[in-house]
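Hi, here's the filled form for the chain we discussed.

Project: internal
Contact: R.S.
Residues: 80
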Amino acid sequence: MHICEDALSIGGIPLKTPFGQSIGLKIYKTGTISEEVTVVGLIVIFATIAWVRGFFAAGYFQQQFAEVWDVIGGLFHVWS
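And the returned structure, exactly as it came back:
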């Protein structure tokens, strides 16, 4: 998401070196209200996609929590 947002800025994304030529769509300028509007717009778009795909469903959260819990439990099992 960070690179997506940088590609929309005036500064853009550097092509070859960190201080070389960069590409950006020049939609907003960093530190202005246009940056805030852009961020909120991206959050709405990506949250809508996540909601439509079912990532906000309770079952999905339970499954993800169980998987993380299993990984953490496995780490402690290895360390003991």
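Let me know if anything looks off before we file it.
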